[in-house]
Write a structure and sequence with these properties.
Order of helices and strands of chain A: HHHEEHHHHH
CATH topology of chain A: MetI-like fold
Oligomer: heterodimer
Structural class of chain A: mainly alpha
CATH superfamily of the largest domain in chain B: MetI-like
Strand order of the largest sheet of chain A: 1-2
CATH architecture of chain A: Orthogonal Bundle
Strand order of the largest sheet of chain B: 5-1-6
Largest sheet of chain A: 2 strands, antiparallel
Distance between the termini of chain A: 63 Å
CATH topology of the largest domain in chain B: MetI-like fold
Radius of gyration of chain B: 34 Å
Shape of chain B: elongated
Number of strands of chain B: 13
Number of strands of chain A: 2
CATH class of chain A: Mainly Alpha
Distance between the termini of chain B: 138 Å
Radius of gyration of chain A: 21 Å
Strand content of chain A: under 5%
Strand content of chain B: 5-15%
């Protein structure tokens, strides 16, 4: 390991963890707002008629909106003195990234909620409960996607990795640092996905057992 | 007789000397200034006074100044300090009037002049050809700055050769942004220059570009100077005081003459020294305005003495006039202000066309590479040989664990190791990265489908053919969702310098107006393109399911 890499790694972990906390913060905001909106759209879609069609169209548009473009749109197209219900909107970098992820999370929640509500109507409460692990999966996808904030100067995990890499002159050292970054992002992600799989398997087993009993 | 002769000669000599002195005096800027002011003062009380008469007779000069531009114009409560404020004092002294300061910023300084809310602006305003049509600049200029690139001392940046592909923090509307963009620099834009030093300190910006006059103050701070250095400068621009274009001819003339005198007599130079700003330009100008051909009443119109405005006019497109007509028509019909800067100038139009073409290439490439990697990695993961299965699985886990932005950066870093940086290399790296990330996920779905096909064959005790094709058909919905994801992810390629539409429009808005319309168009473009991809992928899914799944 080169002295330059050693020097960077000596201070890297606390900086990265602080940055990763921002990733989790962004994902949490995006999921909470997306959950509220997505459930509204899901109920609207189940209502059928004009409301249902409108909800399906809006969900389709949100599904098609690229996060990165939405982020730049929010930062550049919103008026400087914008306000919501009289409250001035001062869009910080963190909020811009979080809100740019809302179309994805709301569409995802709406799609999964429609499926879960349909299962519930068919009397399969456990199948409907699969909504919860899917929500956890969405949260981790949002954590990974929040790295887009690096492009607008949000000091999240990816930005920390890139800033530290700038101090390394050799490509080998940079790649080693990137590998550390991937490991630090990957371990919680893979652990979460493992837990989701376990949870889904258990739910499936319970569902099969109940089905057999019935 | 001799005495009389001597007296006559002496009288003639005295008359000649007086006449010569008088003639020189009339040609000097000092005499011309005195004459202009005298004539204006004599006009007090007359109808339709011009702005100079209003100032002199009203006894107040309203000057637009900045509140926070260190060393040049700052305000702490009622106390103002800086190079530009001392110039304002010197002008007021000469005119014999009081000063009234009005706060201006980069956006308000020209409108306030046009609305007659200020008489004069001295607010770090660069003199370029675009502004010549909006205000009347005072000549000669009172300062000159250049755009300087500032970064950490350790950063190896010495010239434009080191700039392609780098991200530079700059401010929206800065005249030098177009030049940065033309050297393949990516811009991170901020509204105010004041945030740039902080962004350099916290590492958000690796490089920042702004007027050297702006950074001059920060380089007086030991810790900033120890951490950062000026890498190189470009785009020299003279700074001008300015007055309104209408009703200010005589005020402008008086200020022209005053500016000449201030240069010649070292007034500007002394004030600059007092505020510890760079004096190179002012020393050069003092030498110019001491020259006999410049130190005249008409010196400020002598092209050999004055500096030209920075040429900031961009070549218009052949259809720019029609675009402007369309904008006006929309405004008149709907009351909505739509600006289409990407259609009005040749550089913007060229960037726009390139951006659209590159975006479509990127999307097509990302779709193709996703499909190829999905089939390759799916096949490898489903293979019975561990030597093939495990590396493919490990690669998939790594790619799933890496945020897409990081994967793109790694792909770009590796590409730079093997190729010189270019738009094609950036696009290629982005296509590979997007294909790998989405293809690995889709490949995993295919391999899982292969496992189910195998299990069913084993259960039924038969070996049906085309297992892999059937698995592809069975995992078609997953495959399609990752293809759509790849198309949606293409704008992120701008992060590594791929010149797609987001990148192109960001560049265009950095040196032109119409940000809101531009980003609306961008959003609509990508939503339409992604929906088209969704429709195409839906057809693909239908075909795969019908042809392969059993």
């Amino acid at each position: 390991m080169s002295p330059a890499l050693q020097q960077v790694l000596a201070t890297f972990l606390p900086l990265f963890l602080r940055g990763m906390a921002v990733n989790f913060e962004i994902a949490a905001i995006a999921l909470v707002v997306g959950l509220a909106l997505g459930l509204l759209f899901a109920f609207a879609r189940l209502a059928r008629g004009l409301l249902g069609a409108l909800s399906a169209t809006v969900t389709g548009l949100m599904r098609a909106a690229p996060t990165f473009v939405v982020m730049f749109f929010l930062l550049n197209a919103l008026p400087r003195n914008a306000s919501l219900f009289g409250i001035p909107i001062d869009l910080s970098g963190v909020m811009a990234v979080a809100i740019s992820l809302v179309p994805y999370s709301a569409a995802y929640v709406a799609d999964n909620a429609v499926q879960a509500l349909a299962q519930l109507r068919q009397g399969s409460a456990l199948a409907a409960l699969l909504f919860l692990p899917n929500l956890t999966r969405a949260f981790f996808v949002l954590v990974m996607s929040s790295g887009a904030g690096a492009a607008i100067g949000v000091n999240e995990g990816i930005a920390v990795i890139l800033h530290q890499a700038e101090q390394l002159p050799d490509i080998e050292d940079k790649l080693a640092l990137f590998a550390v970054g991937i490991a630090l992002f990957g371990v919680p992600l893979q652990a979460a996905f493992y837990l989701i799989r376990v949870l889904q398997a258990r739910l499936s087993r319970v569902m099969i057992r109940r089905h057999v009993k019935a | 007789m001799r005495l009389l002769w001597r007296a006559v000669v002496g009288l003639c000599l005295a008359l000649a000397t007086w006449a010569t002195a008088g003639a020189q005096d009339v040609r000097s800027p000092d005499a011309a200034l005195a004459q202009v002011l005298e004539e204006a003062r004599a006009s007090c009380g007359q109808p339709n006074p011009d702005r100079l008469v209003k100032v002199l007779c009203g006894g107040t000069l309203r000057i637009g100044v900045r509140d926070y531009y260190p060393l040049f114009s700052t305000r702490d409560g009622e106390k103002r300090d800086g190079y530009e404020l001392d110039i304002a004092d010197a002008i007021a002294d000469r005119l014999g009037v009081k000063l009234e300061f009005v706060r201006v910023n980069a956006a308000s300084r020209i409108p306030l002049l046009a609305e007659d809310r200020i008489d004069l602006v001295i607010a770090t305003m660069g003199h370029n050809t675009q502004r010549d049509s909006q205000v009347r600049f005072v000549r000669p200029h009172y300062y000159q700055s250049e755009t300087t690139v500032v970064g950490p001392r350790a950063a190896i940046v010495a010239s434009w050769l080191d700039m392609p592909g780098r991200t530079v923090c700059a401010t929206v509307g800065n005249g030098s942004n177009a030049e940065l963009v033309s050297h393949d620099v990516r811009l991170m834009l901020f509204d105010e220059a004041g945030v740039l030093p902080g962004k350099l300190r916290d590492g958000t910006c690796q490089l920042a570009a702004q007027d050297d006059s702006f950074f001059a103050y920060y380089f007086t701070e030991p810790d900033f100077a120890a951490a950062f250095s000026q890498k190189f400068g470009f785009a020299q621009v003279p700074w001008g005081m300015a007055v309104a274009r209408t009703g200010s001819d005589r005020l402008a003339r008086a200020l022209d003459l005053m500016s000449q005198i201030f240069h010649r007599d070292g007034v500007f130079l002394d004030i600059a020294r007092k505020h510890h700003i760079s004096t190179n330009f002012l020393r050069e100008q003092q030498a110019v305005w001491k020259r006999i051909d410049c130190d005249t009443a008409t010196g400020s119109t002598n092209q050999a003495c004055i500096l030209p405005a920075l040429d900031a006019d961009l070549e218009p497109t052949s259809f720019a006039a029609r675009v402007s007509t369309f904008e006006s028509w929309i405004n008149a019909k709907t009351g909505t202000s739509i600006l289409l800067p990407m259609l009005k100038t040749v550089p913007a139009w060229s960037l726009f066309l390139g951006g659209v073409a590159n975006s479509l290439i990127l999307i097509a490439g990302a779709l193709l590479s996703t499909l190829v990697f999905a089939l390759l990695l799916g096949g490898a993961q489903a293979a019975p040989w561990r030597l093939l299965h495990w590396p493919a699985h490990a690669l998939t886990v790594v790619l799933q664990s890496s945020p897409i932005v990081l994967t793109l950066v790694i792909a770009a870093a590796l590409a730079r190791e093997f190729f010189d940086f270019s738009d094609v290399v950036a696009l290629g790296a982005a296509i590979m990265a997007l294909g790998l990330v989405n293809g690995s996920n889709a490949g995993q779905a295919i391999s899982e489908a292969v496992a189910t096909v195998r299990a069913e064959d084993a259960r039924d005790g038969v070996r049906r053919g085309h297992r892999f094709r059937r698995a592809v058909g069975r995992s078609s919905s997953q495959l399609v969702s990752f293809l759509v994801n790849a198309a949606k992810g293409t704008p992120i390629a701008s992060f590594i310098g791929a010149p797609e539409l987001l990148s192109a429009l960001t560049d265009i808005t950095s040196f032109s107006t119409g940000r809101v319309t531009t980003y609306w168009l961008l959003l609509i473009f990508y939503i339409v393109v992604v929906m088209a991809v969704v429709w195409l992928c839906g057809r693909l899914q239908h075909w795969l399911a019908r042809s392969y799944a059993t």
